[in-house]
Design goal:
Order of helices and strands: EHEEEHHHEH
Largest sheet: 5 strands, mixed
Number of strands: 5
Number of helices: 5
Helix content: 25-40%
Radius of gyration: 21 Å
Strand content: 5-15%
Oligomer: single chain
């Protein structure tokens, strides 16, 4: 990533927090601000990954995944500026939204169907176990 360019725009954390939906998704990575709205459909991990981090600091999540050199080069296209110095890691904490404002056209989260499916399977297994032990008695 390039060093801070004096011509780059500066953004405050409060403004970035408002950009947390499929209509406008901004993230912070290493004190740089990225508008990933147009990249949502192209992200290999799916749009949910970006929307979960939208409006906040995604540095840790970005580094935990271990993105390739190509991904790091590609992200330069989406850089729109720098995080204001007062909002950087030494400043006030940036609150990362845990529940982004996902519009209806953004699709549903995997947890919204996976958790109920797991509960239904567990309930069916418990029912079969209880029913079979009642028959054997």
């Amino acid at each position: 990533m390039a060093d801070s360019d004096p011509k780059m725009n500066m953004f405050r954390a409060k403004d970035i927090r408002e950009k947390n939906s499929a209509r406008g998704a901004w993230i912070i990575i290493h004190d740089k601000v990225f508008d990933v709205t147009k990249f949502l459909d192209e992200h290999p991990g799916g749009e949910e990954v970006l929307l979960d981090q939208a409006g906040g600091d995604a540095t840790e999540a970005f580094e935990d995944v271990g993105h390739s050199t190509d991904a790091r080069e590609l992200m330069k296209e989406y850089c729109i500026g720098d995080l204001h110095e007062e909002d950087r890691q030494g400043g006030p904490p940036i609150k990362t939204s845990t529940t982004p404002n996902v519009s209806d056209d953004a699709g549903s989260s995997w947890a919204s169907w996976l958790l109920p499916l797991g509960i239904a399977i567990a309930a069916a297994l418990i029912y079969r176990f209880v029913a079979s032990s009642n028959i054997n008695q």
